[in-house]
Amino acid sequence: MNKPHRNTIMVEDAEILEHDHHAGAQHVLRVQAPQIAQRATPGSFVHLQCDPQLPMRRPISIMRVDAEAGWVEFLYKVFGHGTQLLARRKPGERVNMLGPIGVPFTLHHERSRPVLIGGGVGIPPMIFLADALRAHKETYQPFVIMGSEVPFPFTPRPSTIMVPVMPDGVIACMPLLEDWGIASRLASQQGFPGSHDGYVTDLARRYLDALDDSQRQQIEIFSCGPHPMLEAVAQVAKDYGVPCQVSLEEFMACAVGGCAGCVVEVQTQSGPAMKRVCVDGPVFDAYSVFN
pTM, whole model, 2 decimals? Predict the structure, then answer.
């Protein structure tokens, strides 16, 4: 049997370089993990031991890597006991992790206008993908939409990259993406200044409505976030007839395909099949998951 992940998942004791804390129980963790940094691709994740006294690991999406410097960066939110322990870890300490794990996003050159939609802790894979896209500025013209119901884990600022079809006053962006020359807009129902008061899908529809048929042929949607958001994003893709890839969020025990605790039903050419989110995903064609 073909084992696509054999010899690609590393076990690494990573030194914590930085651990920044933000409102909404959100944390940005940067570790020195050169083997994982060399192999990570947008959409992959690690299975991380939050504390030496807690054997059960937690899956955390990769947000950024620097393969040359050897660091990997994550954004996570405290949800339970494990991430509470992780939030206490300090620079200089080490965390054990398995990774990179999972099927990544796939870019298509003919789809030169990718729309990236991230919600909550689904934002990190979109940043990783945007970072990969900026290396091909001559090919891709991405637009990133981010949503959060807690304060964003960065200080938004008014964008200087115009997206004329956005609602009046929707000008807040992620500074990192702005510095990369990538247009971004924010959405929330919490009244954050410069953010759209509503859903990420509202902004996606505004953007897609403004395109002509030839421009829409260049669209592909990529998304990660809570299940209801992904279902809504898949409906947007279906309504506009554009391809869509989604990264699913599921609880995982082993994260390497052994326990089958993270299976979801996916439509295949042979009919419905149960697929493991950890190694068969986490990235799937949206139409195979939401149909």
Answer: 0.94
Residue with tokens 């950024």: 64
Interhelix angle 227-240/200-209, rounded to 10 degrees, is 10
Cβ contacts of 260 within 8 Å, gap of 6 or more: 274, 276
| Tens-place pLDDT, residues 17-30 | 999 999 999 999 99
Q: Which residues pair with 188 in a beta bridge?
A: 197
**CB 29 within 8 Å of CB 15:** no
Report in angstroms the alpha-carbon separations of 146 from 11, 90, 174, 224, 227: 32, 28, 9, 10, 15
CA distance 90 to 15: 10
Rounded to whole angstroms, the Cα distance separating 3 from 34 reads: 23
What domains are defined for the chain? 10-101 (2.40.30.10), 113-289 (3.40.50.80)
* pLDDT band at residue 75 under the 50/70/90 scheme: very high
pLDDT digits (tens, 9 = 90+) for 222-236: 999 999 999 999 999
How many angstroms separate the CA atoms of 181 and 95, rounded?
A: 34
25-66: per-residue pLDDT in tens? 999 999 999 999 999 999 999 999 999 989 899 999 999 999
